[in-house]
Write a structure and sequence with these properties.
Chain lengths: ~350, ~70
């Protein structure tokens, strides 16, 4: 069988260009296997051929993502590649994100299978789960690059099987990181019987495997208590979807990926101005009538006047939270936090519907 | 940050650390079915509880319950 042509992606470090000082290196293509790609090539000699390697600096990718993925797509077409292999990125944040973004983009735009590897607690793993691409497999690796040998053999084993057109089974059978797909399969017992079996196992303290794992959410570091509110600048944040009248910023009633802040300076109540309410997840009649239900400005102004806290920040932050994906909401939250820090805000009240 | 939400259980599952129980989903800070003054007092109590939450030491997701009574959703 003719080996399948593949593209390999590495960052500037594994591409042999240099360390952090070369993280601004633009994307470049080499018609050979480079760095970890060489070992990968040896492991899959019969089924795969690394036709081209894309090397890109981690910062360059982060700052020029759409340009880099577009040129990788162009090169994938030029070299007629039928698979993309990226990394392994281990615990590296930026490199991990680059691997996931490139694999996602290539799989969505060309349907070619993509394989990458990284530490399973790396932040980009969450993105991989969100993308849920049918033919993008992420293999768990060690956190440090000392696990290179094992990571490459796992990736190579999976890549060879994909290249040979073999059916790839579930995440637990194959050892890649679960994307959260529910697969149909034929079993002997009905759902009711299986549920009772699981319950009996659980009650008896025996080992059991759930058919529908509950998503776990990571802990959020606890902020220390504020000793005195006397000098605190307090901001109001809402996911209730209270936006400027006429919705000039084009918010949607669901799945928003942006936020805005609107002035409440010199107002004593949200009723002092006109607002729209954009939210597809609850009955917005009451919020239209009195947006203080979602942005409690009237109560906060009174309490501010009583000297309980320093001052109210003259804007409130908003995004309509309906059907927001965790990753989109986390991105919004990071941006708002950056803005809050720059504005000298000490504390916030978030109202969510 | 203190998080005012009528869905405190969900907020706890999502690991929000200082959770303040709000009234109802369509109006977390108040109750439109109560007369204006009572509605406003309810909103004040919720905000005061949130300010207290900001000043309270917690070690993980913690629910603060304002002294609220409301008539309906």
């Amino acid at each position: 069988m003719t080996p399948l042509r593949a593209m390999y992606y590495v960052n500037q470090f594994f591409g042999g260009i240099g360390g952090e000082d070369k993280a601004d290196a633009p994307v470049a293509f080499r018609e050979e296997a480079v760095g970890p790609g060489r070992r990968f090539q040896e492991l899959c000699r019969e089924s795969l051929e690394v036709a081209v390697t894309a090397v890109c600096g981690d910062n360059y990718f982060a700052e020029h993502q759409s340009e880099v993925v577009a040129s990788i797509l162009e090169a994938a077409r030029k070299y007629g590649v039928r698979m993309l292999v990226a990394g392994p990125a281990f615990g590296s944040g930026r490199y991990g994100f680059a691997c996931v973004e490139i694999c996602h983009f290539l799989n969505v735009s060309t349907n070619i299978p993509c394989i990458s590897g990284m530490y399973d607690e790396s932040p980009a793993v969450e993105l991989y789960r969100q993308y849920k691409d049918k033919e993008f497999f992420l293999v768990p690796t060690s956190e440090a690059a000392s696990g290179m040998g094992e990571a490459l053999s796992k990736m190579a084993r999976l890549a060879s099987r994909v290249a040979r057109g073999e059916a790839i089974g579930s995440a637990s059978e194959e050892g890649y990181i679960s994307r959260g797909f529910r697969r149909d399969s034929v079993v002997d017992k009905t759902g009711a019987e299986r549920a009772v079996d699981i319950l009996l196992d659980k009650l008896a303290g025996r080992a059991f495997t759930t058919e529908i794992p509950i998503e776990t959410v990571e802990e959020i570091p606890v902020a220390p208590p504020i000793a005195s509110l006397k000098d605190v600048c307090l901001a109001l944040v809402t996911t209730a979807g209270v936006v400027a009248s006429g919705n000039p910023d084009g918010f949607k009633t669901n799945r928003n990926t942006q936020w805005r802040k609107y002035s409440i300076d010199k107002m004593n109540s949200m009723k002092d101005a006109k607002w729209d309410v954009l939210h597809g997840g609850y009955n917005t009649v009451f919020m239209h009538e009195n947006p203080n239900y979602g942005v409690p400005l009237d109560a906060c102004r009174e309490i501010e006047g009583e000297g309980v806290f320093g001052k109210l920040y003259p804007y409130f932050y908003v995004t309509p939270g309906n059907l927001g994906s965790i990753s989109a909401m986390q991105a919004i939250s990071r941006e708002i936090q950056r803005d809050m820090k720059a504005e000298g805000i000490d504390a916030a009240l978030l109202v969510s519907t | 940050m203190a998080h005012i939400t009528p869905m405190a259980t969900l907020a706890k599952q999502m690991k929000s650390n200082r959770i303040v129980v709000g009234t109802k989903v369509p109006h977390p800070c108040g109750d439109p079915n109560q007369p204006g003054e009572a509605d406003h007092a309810l909103r004040r109590e919720i905000v005061r509880t949130a300010l207290k939450a900001l000043q309270t030491e917690v070690s993980g997701p913690t629910v603060f319950v304002p002294d609220i009574s409301y008539t309906s959703g």
